[in-house]
């Protein structure tokens, strides 16, 4: 098995493109949730130390990331 067979450039490029698209979708979902909620999420988490909101928002980010990764993997 040669090195060219092991490292196929089209798979690397596809992986990079899907990763970039996934990151963009994740940031877009974050931005939409930030606009929908009445309070500024970062202000609540960082300045007011709202740990419950931090946990809920972390779960949201993980859930969106799992959805994106399963969509890319399929």
Description:
It is found in: Cell membrane. InterPro entries: DUF350. The chain crosses the membrane at residues 12-33, 53-72. It is a multi-pass membrane protein. Belongs to the UPF0719 family. Helix 2 packs antiparallel against helix 4 (51-73). The chain has four helices and no strands. The mean pLDDT is 84. It is mostly helical and 74 residues long. The chain has helices at residues 3-6, 9-36, 41-46, 51-73. The protein is 82% helix and 0% strand.
Q: In a few lines, what is going on in this structure?
A:
This protein is mainly alpha-helical and 74 residues long. It is built from four helices and no strands.
Count of DSSP strands: 0
What does the oligomeric state look like here?
A: single chain
Radius of gyration: 18 Å
Report the sheet-strand fraction. under 5%
Element-by-element helix/strand order: HHHH
The outline comes out as elongated
Largest sheet: none
Mean pLDDT, nearest integer? Answer: 84
**Percent range of helical residues:** over 70%
The DSSP helix count reads: 4
The computed structural class is mainly alpha
Given as residue ranges, the uncertain stretches (5+ residues, pLDDT < 50) are none
Protein name: DUF350 domain-containing protein
Family: Belongs to the UPF0719 family.
Organism: Pedobacter rhodius
Main location: membrane
